Amino acid sequence: MADSSAPLTAADVQQIALLARLQLSEAHQAAYADSLNRVLGLMDSLARVDTDGVLPMASPHDRAQPLRDDVPTEPNRRADYQAVAPATQDGLYLVPKVIE
Amino acid sequence: MSELHLLSLSEQIKGLASGQFSSVELTQHYLQRITNLDPQLNSFITVTPELALEQAAAADQRRANGKATALTGIPIAQKDIFCTQGVKTSCGSKMLDNFIAPYNATVIGQSNAAGLVMLGKTNMDEFAMGSSNENSFYGAVKNPWALDRVPGGSSGGAAAAVAADLAPLASGTDTGGSIRQPASFCGLTGLKPTYGRVSRFGMIAYASSLDQGGPMARDAFGCAQLLQVMAGHDAKDSTSVDQPVDDYVSGLNQSLQGLRIGIPKQYFAEGLDAEVKTKIETALKQLEALGATVVEINLTTTEAAIPAYYLIAPAEASSNLSRYDGVRYGYRCDAPKDLTDLYMRSRAEGFGAEVQRRILIGTYALSAGYYDAYYLKAQKVRRLIQQDFLKAFEQCDVIAGPTAPTTAYALGAKQDPVSMYLGDIYTIAVNLAGLPAISAPCGLDSEQLPIGLQLIGNYWREAQLLNIAHQYQQQTDWHRQRAPLARGQEA
């Protein structure tokens, strides 16, 4: 991929789309390259903000992750959850063959 | 009883309590209005008449048994982002068009426990990504004030439904302004609570560190009543905070004497529509007349909030939406040739353009070599934004300004994503900081479109925001103005 100052090309978008598991046509790659470059243009102003010594903030409240007792709380509802799956068999999710 | 929808929520509560009308009658009335008017608005994705009448009958029975809460028997429209057991929960996406939720979001469970009657699920921008409700798989929603205008987004269906009197109350969610901006565009009151105040369990995730559910209603009283139902700690959401819940309804009669209102000069700078500015200034004068004082404050990070938000939110979205893989639930492409093809085509065919754009931005910002320059930098700016607010709250109790730079714009007017993103300038910093904020109607522009006043509070000060909006609404009647469609006229 290009460095962060150079505009994204359709080929860059194709690479990003592969990471995101999105199948894009060539026309879509070019269109997204154009709109992504306009959006990334907004980000230039961030570089002007002095953030030396500033700690990154991931969430509004700086709290430790709460932990609960390690005991089961949910009943087994496999059939309910698999009822909304595209394809299942014998309680398993079906996908195209992975191992030949 | 043909005018039940014209009663205020407070009058509807009294009417149910005194037996003047039943919940079944009230529910039938709203269902009829949805049938008659929603084809013009497209505010609902799913209407659930049988379930609604069943819940209404149960509410009437509960009242007869002396077990009614304040909102028992009152109808509500739930945003289609909240999982509702046995009901299609699409999140505005083709990806979830076939998804019947197998469990209830905590917000849905709380509404059911209070005896609220669900009329249906409201339209929204796909996965809550949008500011105009034009990004829905189910089509755009129209603004009841003018059918050629957007209702705002992403809770656009919720706002249009309440503004057209198709429901007295609605739930919304707000990641970057998605409750407040549609409330502003549709002349409603909408509250985005403090991050962690309302459970996110079963609320389909967009950006987990920003998303927060909240109430939408005509007035602050309605928002106070609904927030009372929605607020509280939930062990099923690890970001839910165990903080005492205030009594929002009984807190609505506090004097504003001595209240210090901070006015950020950055919120009145270039880009703000002149008519919006005038009405906000008038509203501030009215608050001063109620005893408040105004101090100028400085939120220097205002402009940086837009790029910070449009990196952090897509980064979180790209991670959250990786769950849609065409395997466990949701859309799957036809005849996948292998597993990668299944993933790539299911996601390309199931997600709309704006969702794909944000996934691509987020994936890029999180990728090796770009993480520090984009995502980490945005997280540092996020802390500066929070510090900016905390410093401001040393000088004032609440911060006031416009909710949006303009009133509702024409459908199709903003084709460029950047111009759409810039419209979020006054709302997104609040989500980055995790603060509560309310939008309340404060006037109409020369085209008779509503304008919203935004009040931002310190952490956990929802009661204060609701009280200020309520005191303002005791002196003004903007919240009682009705859209032409709700008055039975052509919009």
Summed up:
The complex is a heterodimer of chains A (100) and B (491). With 100 residues, chain A is mainly alpha-helical.
CATH class of chain B: Alpha Beta
Determine the number of helices of chain B (DSSP H or I, runs of at least 4 residues). Answer: 15
Question: Biggest interface between protein chains, with counts per chain?
Answer: A-B, 52 and 71 residues
Overall pLDDT level of chain A: 91
Report the principal-axis shape of chain A. Answer: flat
Secondary structure: number of strands of chain B = 11
CATH architecture tag of the domain at 1-46 in chain A: Orthogonal Bundle
Largest sheet strand order of chain A: 1-2
Which key features would you list for this structure?
heterodimer, A: 100 residues, mainly alpha, Histone, subunit A, two-stranded antiparallel sheet, B: alpha/beta, Amidase signature (AS) enzymes, eight-stranded mixed sheet, three-stranded mixed sheet, 11 strands
Topology:
The complex is a heterodimer of chains A (100) and B (491).
Chain A lengths: L9 H10 L6 H17 L1 H4 L30 H5 L5 E2 L2 E2 L7
Antiparallel strand pairs in A: 1-2
Helix pairs in contact in A: 1-2
Chain B lengths: L8 H10 L4 H19 L2 E4 L1 H16 L10 E5 L26 H9 L2 E6 L33 H8 L5 E5 L6 H7 L2 E4 L20 E5 L2 H11 L29 E5 L9 H16 L3 E5 L7 H16 L18 H12 L2 H14 L5 H21 L5 E5 L14 H6 L5 H6 L3 E8 L5 E8 L4 H14 L16
Parallel strand pairs in B: 2-3, 7-8, 7-9
Antiparallel strand pairs in B: 1-3, 4-6, 5-6, 5-10, 9-11, 10-11
Helix pairs in contact in B: 2-3, 5-6, 7-15, 9-11, 9-12
